[in-house]
Amino acid sequence: MTPSGKTVDVALAQLRQALSTLESAVDGRFERERAQSDVEGEVRRVHADRSRLAQELDQAEFRANRLEEVNREVSRRLVTAMETIRAVLDR
């Protein structure tokens, strides 16, 4: 083989190596982008869950406050009824 033939062979080997390195870099980039997309999707799901849970919490707090109001009203009415019964019994 002539010196120029060896030079071509070396150049081809270097080109193959460079293409292999490029393919690896592209594959790595695609993998990172896919992983980033997965993370972004998970972040969106977490935000949606947080929003839903915050809304459920607000509703639960509203119901709890309403129950407290009803409880106070029932207690007030019971006290009034007991006082009325005592007044009737004391006659």
Automatic annotation (TrEMBL):
Ranges in coiled-coil conformation: 50-77
Superkingdom: Bacteria
Any Pfam family: DUF4164
This protein's UniProt keywords: Coiled coil
Name of protein: DUF4164 domain-containing protein
Provenance organism: Rhizobium calliandrae
